[in-house]
Amino acid sequence: MWTHRRSGLTNQRGVEDHRDPYERDRTRVIHCPAFRRLQRKTQILGTDEGDFHRTRLTHSLEVDSIGRSIVRNLLMSQNQQGLLASLLPNDDLVSVICLLHDIGHPPFGHGGEVALNYMMRDYGGFEGNGQTLRLLTKVENSYGAYGLDLTRRALIGILKYPVNRSSVVALEQPPIHDSIHKTIKVNDWLPPKAYFDCEQPEIEWLLQPFTDNDKALFQSLAKAPQATQAGKSAYHSFDCSIMDTADDIAYGVHDLEDAIHLRLISPGHLDTPKFRSLLANTTLAQEQDQLIDSLFSDELCLRKQTIGLMVNYFITSTQISTTNESFENTLLKYNIILTPEADALLHYLKDCIFQNVIDSQEARTFEYGGQTVVLRLFDAISSNPASLLDNKNRELFKKAEDENAAYRVVCDYIANMTDEYAYRMHERLFGFNTRTIFERL
After folding, report:
1. Checking CA distances to 201, which of 31, 318, 344, 364 falls within 20 to 30 Å?
2. Which residues contact 419 (CB under 8 A, 6 or more apart)?
């Protein structure tokens, strides 16, 4: 049942195809146009800022590597071999889930996501993880109406927030500006973390193998929506927890390397008494001074070795935890978590990146510029779909059954753009250039 595909097809390359279902999934991913576009989508810094730092594609490759290492470490270190044999994903499956975790994110990262959510506020909203499910099951049509037609377990693994948007969206909508040219307050339009309501048929297929009790518990909320605050889902699957942990490690350590290389984080930003105290609780304690010196060394090899040491520490600090004893299926009952000491250290690193990079004037300026590009593109294309959509999406727009579906076509088109493609289209339409990010006055 976990290797089933919505199309019902199990082997599309004849009876002599030697690959197992998850290996075929992985092949589909690496040949997918949307996956290749990740090389020109922003991770933290703009794609024109140089060749060293991560893009969405290289970040996804690193999450893949970390995810597979987590699985192998668990196999070697855990005593519950009977449980692990049936629970742990194989290399191809965890690779598929990790490679795909960011594929639904639009151009310009967070700025693009907020802009699309604002423009789609009356038509079902937008959120990057929700778009991932939609892209894989519908938009990326390598296998016709079934998208990439991936296996059930792979799709459950990328379902980070298994609740629909209607159940978590805030009860009150923020103020609406008369013109998109006015500033959108980012924190007013943060998208609720959920799948889109229009993907409900796909979700029902995905969750078929689970009991009614498991389905209800899996889709329950950790926090209900309030006046201006979105609700929050409570659970995700075991495979998803591996991907989520690998993603956090890649963000907290590899993106730290980018920030150090670009001199956005200095020793004074990172090396604080709190950092020292957090390190003292870990197996890295004996190498505190050497670790700091190596991270900021002019020798690339020393920085690389230290980054590798830190990544390995977090990988070997993972353990299996029970999410809720009431779950009947082990895929839902167990998750991967970090030990408390490792989790506290990783949280510190992520917070350091947020304060000194993501929330910097330069990055916020880039984010705002990208947000403006997306707002203007959406406004222009939705006003003139017969002229400005490509041929494929023009037909989809014409066939849309209602206004929600029509606007969703425009949203899909823009969300699939790379940063560079969105820039070029914006320049052709409006003649503006908003590319610079770290240019100094």
Report:
1. 31
2. 40, 41, 42, 46, 47, 48, 107, 108, 370
**DSSP one-letter string for 70-125:** HHHHHHHH-S-HHHHHHHS--HHHHHHHHHHTTTT--TTHHHHHHHHHHHTTTTT-
CA distances in angstroms from 200 to 134, 158, 197, listed in the order given: 10, 15, 6
| Backbone φ, ψ for residue 334 (5° rounding) | -120, 150
Domain boundaries defined on the chain: 21-235, 239-358, 361-430
Best-predicted range by mean pLDDT (57-61, 169-173, 295-299, 324-328): 324-328
Tell whether the model's pLDDT for residue 325 goes beyond 70. yes
For the stretch 115-142, pLDDT in tens is: 999 999 999 999 999 999 999 999 998 8
State residue 51's pLDDT score: 46
CA 167 remoteness from chain centre: 21
The two tokens of residue 316 are 């070997």
pLDDT at 441 over 50: no
Identify which of 371, 389, 391, 402 has the alpha carbon closest to the alpha carbon of residue 429.
Answer: 389
Cα 176 to Cα 167: distance, rounded to the nearest angstrom: 22
Q: Give burial (CB, 10 Å; 0-12/13-18/19+) of 15.
A: exposed
Q: Which two tokens stand for residue 350?
A: 């992520």
Q: What pTM does this model have?
A: 0.91
- What type of residue sits at position 398? K
Judge whether 108 and 437 are in contact, CB under 8 Å.
no
